[in-house]
Amino acid sequence: MLEHSRPSLSRRALIGGIAAGAVAAAAVAAPAAAEKSESCKPAKLVPGDLVVVPAPGGPTTATAVGRGIALLESWGLRVELTEHALDTFGYLSAPDADRLADLQYALDHPEAKALMTARGGYGTTRIIDEVDFSGLEDHPKLIVGYSDITALHLAANHHTGLASLHSPMMAWSSNNTAATAESLRSALMSTDPVVLTRDPAEPTAAVEVPGTASGLLYGGNLSLLDAEPDDNHLPDFDGAILFIEDTDEYRYRIDGMLTRFTRAGHFDGLAGIAVGQFTPNEHDEYKPGEWTMNEVLTDRLGGLGIPVLGGLKVGHGLDPRVMPLGTEAVLDTDAGTLTIEAAVGE
């Protein structure tokens, strides 16, 4: 069964070090947001549970996937690859019909407790509108992935309210560390809140608008958020915290995506913004007098009138961390933390 938790209750559990007066003020300021939304949680994983692995986007290799399988098996979990998880079809893992069938199989799987995608790449948006999410009501499971899998996170939450994990995938990257692995294990197998702390060494650490905010946390890869049709799977951002990250994009392209979000009104009503890793495009040569990536982000986000916290180790960069999506979070720029309710329940 899915676990439903009211944000107004979970918020009190998460606040911790924030003063009681600030909590009361936040609750008074946004009662509608607290009443209209619920977080739906699959159960935490335990040894013996099954994780099923489709590849709805790009191709990968057996070697990379093998590293991820070994990691999960070391925690006592079982792993099943879908039929086409290791196929290659151009820049896709398989033709659309095969990727869709594999994804549907994974979502409907009656025994699996989690769906962890093989990798991101490109291709999920080509099939996402044909996916049936009704099986998650009978067989709820945790969806794990990031990058191109942002489209799957958005759609699954839109149709079911299901919380999920923005996380490295089964094709275990050389960017990942032992700390990355531990953050995944904890997010999969524990109901403890996830606390992400601004890292001064992260390039986006200087991106900040002071303040505190609380609300449901949504987001992911900015390119995928920007590509989502406005009337399709984008969540209701009113009273929410939006997380963004991206990789291999030109600065003017990031400017354009954030500008489109502004023009479309998607920033209206947001409580705050969390900024992860924005790894540069190697051909985006900086010239004196141009804006840096941080200056682009600050220019586009700094005038929204809401708190912004950068420097989070979440995204395509080195040593990333795992982030729940679709649960209640508290952003505090003074402490430099984003504290997030677990995506799983007991």
UniProtKB/TrEMBL annotation:
Organism: Glycomyces niveus
Lineage of the species this protein comes from: Bacteria, Bacillati, Actinomycetota, Actinomycetes, Glycomycetales
CDD domains in the cross-refs: Peptidase_S66 (cd07025)
Signal peptide: 1-29
Record's protein name: LD-carboxypeptidase
Keyword set includes Cell wall biogenesis/degradation: no
Gene3D superfamilies membership: Class I glutamine amidotransferase-like, LD-carboxypeptidase A C-terminal domain-like
PROSITE patterns: TAT
Pfam families linked to this entry: Peptidase_S66 (PF02016), Peptidase_S66C (PF17676)
Domain LD-carboxypeptidase N-terminal span(s) in chain numbering: 52-166
The LD-carboxypeptidase C-terminal domain, residue ranges: 214-330
Highest taxon in the source lineage: Bacteria
Keywords carried by this UniProt record: Carboxypeptidase, Hydrolase, Protease, Serine protease, Signal
Family matches, as InterPro entries: Carboxypeptidase_A_C_sf, Class_I_gatase-like, LdcA_N, Peptidase_S66_N, Peptidase_S66C, S66_fam, TAT_signal
Family the entry assigns: Belongs to the peptidase S66 family.
